[in-house]
Amino acid sequence: MNLPDGYRFAGIHCGIKPALPDLTLVVSDGPCVAAGVYTTNLVRAACIDWNRSITPAVDVRAIVVNSGNANACTGRQGARDNEAMADGVASELGLGPGAGRKVLVLSTGVIGRPMPMETVQRGIAAIGRSLASELAAFQAAATAILTTDHSRKTASAEFSVDGQTFRIAAMAKGAGMIGPAMATMLAVIVTDYPHSPSTADGAIREAVDQSFNRISVEGHMSTNDAAILLAPTGGTDATPGRAVFQERLNAVCLELARMIPTDGEGATHLIEIRVRGASSDQAADRIARTIGLSNLVKTAVAGADPNWGRIVSAAGFAGVPFEVGQVSLTLNGIHLFENGEPLPFDPGLTSRVIREKRETLIELSVGHGSGAAWHYTSDLTADYVRLNAEYTT
Amino acid sequence: MNLPDGYRFAGIHCGIKPALPDLTLVVSDGPCVAAGVYTTNLVRAACIDWNRSITPAVDVRAIVVNSGNANACTGRQGARDNEAMADGVASELGLGPGAGRKVLVLSTGVIGRPMPMETVQRGIAAIGRSLASELAAFQAAATAILTTDHSRKTASAEFSVDGQTFRIAAMAKGAGMIGPAMATMLAVIVTDYPHSPSTADGAIREAVDQSFNRISVEGHMSTNDAAILLAPTGGTDATPGRAVFQERLNAVCLELARMIPTDGEGATHLIEIRVRGASSDQAADRIARTIGLSNLVKTAVAGADPNWGRIVSAAGFAGVPFEVGQVSLTLNGIHLFENGEPLPFDPGLTSRVIREKRETLIELSVGHGSGAAWHYTSDLTADYVRLNAEYTT
Questions:
Q1: Residue B184 annotated in active site
Q2: CA angle B222-B137-B18, nearest 5°?
Q3: Contact between B317 and A42 using a beta-carbon 8 Å cutoff
Q4: Tens digit of pLDDT for each residue in B105-140?
Q5: Which of A114, A315, A380 sits opposite B385 (nearest CB)?
Q6: Could you report the per-residue pLDDT of A114-171, keeping only the tens digit for each?
Q7: How far apart are CA A235 and CA A220, in angstroms?
Q8: ipTM associated with this complex
Q9: C-alpha span between A152 and A138 (Å, rounded)
């Protein structure tokens, strides 16, 4: 993994969490373009309002991320604390007076608790010393944004345009409170391919729509979701290689997005749902999401139970029309239901195939339309329940 | 519990399930009015199409219910089997040729398996001998409709109009695949208060809207939901006592509805969600449902975790507008969030109160509007996952 030029990274433990890394800083050497996509939850963290008021922008210099506290549902004090974090970073970086608005903020963790600002400010004062442009620093930064994740989530791409090499490097976090109809969890993407605010904004929106917006763990939309792209200034719609950049950005975001339900809380299977034959892509998306959000489908996969009626019946309440007589289903390639009729199948074999594979592929055809969509989700295990029954206590 | 006059009941074991009762018959002594509310799932059991084509009706004589097999996703053979069940009952009851359409059918159980028709027909031939008008027969009938339920669900009411006594007796089943935006699970309600098809239809719709449509276990809409009311003919809108009947019917359905998430698969808490201050009752209902369907809220209650941010953030993605600055939350009477600001609270005490009570009361005020709604749901436990990971295998 080669990092783009022009950025430094750091990830440290400052004390918001008892022991694990909890503070990340990403700094651009010069003013950079920043664009973001954010949660559409009405109940938003202070950082979301802050970032939304700034991006798309041309003179952003840094993103500070804390994990362990979401700074959401924290009222007016939460907004003040968020601004103090941005101001603190601007001051430490010597960006000059009033430069807080050159610093984006991301928070993730428990909702409704005041930010431990003394701890955070101490961390902000210290983290600058760890900034570096090397891979180890990027990895430390990608580690300190995690909460219930088991594994660090990074992805990268490299491409050449007219003999010049460009790079994209991205980090994400998320294992729970992952729901659709939103932006995403946290993702920070840096590139050395030049952008304007409008090209960056369009690029991140397209990439998120094709990736983070098509995953779920339990479908609960977070208060803190954000995906932010940083890029050098000076790009336009006409910059050579724009389409290649978009293609690579989409691929990087998709790679990260898949990692989230794969690492979903308690998950033992990644479930990939592919719907085709719908009247439109939107209709197919609603069906795929409804299947992906069904606890009955998710528990069946967890238990390797070939209870396929749950899949078909979930499609039936997605709120989009189709003819049951045109519905066909395969599960890991095994045909179970064809044109509305159940097929004879071997439940033992089907169960064994689910159990032995880390990924379960559900393919549903609902008619002869051209609408298609996909969705990734986790299975639902007793461990998910245990993890989430004891999160704050 | 006193039963209304004019009905006989039976519940037996015929062999669809290995050992438990699985066949119920409810017979009206004379032609009766029947009205029903049914699942809105596009993927419907054969019995739903059958009943929908008959009700509201004035000459229904019986309802046959089997548990253990949903006869859903069973294609054309499923429709033929359903009709054979109705014809078999009509024949056994001596209703004359072509009287199958005087018999309603309800099926519940596993989806996608062919009905074991030899077994079912043997049961239909035998069940008539068990028909009786006594309470024990009613209870046997209410037992044979159950699937994963732990307990029989019955409710009744008695009222007088102009010195004449009328009765309502009702049975329901349901513990899983319980979702909103639908009709309900299975419920059969009999009364000796007279109706016309249109009064019966209006009565059952109002009662379901106030009861079964406001509960969930995991939000997966069933293929087989149905609530059916049987009543003597001869009633009109002007029949004295109509309002009292409706009030009692609503109360009976609400009593049954509460039993379903209380007995929800694996459930250790009934969660009651009350939302007020919304712009409309519909808006309040969407918020209450969204909270009730959140796995994160449901696991927090299971673990007695006072992680109230999950409740407020669920409201935030319900898709209806409100001002976070006007949101207040209490949990079992403990104030946690007021006008957008978190309140200091004792997490240990709050947790203990959740753990010690079988019911958890969530009260959310989202503004100054007059819209209000309530929703009942189960908590989500590791046992729910275990039960549903191993349902068919």
A1: yes
A2: 55
A3: yes
A4: 999 988 888 999 999 999 999 999 999 999 999 999
A5: A380
A6: 999 999 999 999 999 999 999 999 999 999 999 888 889 898 989 998 999 999 998 8
A7: 37
A8: 0.78
A9: 11
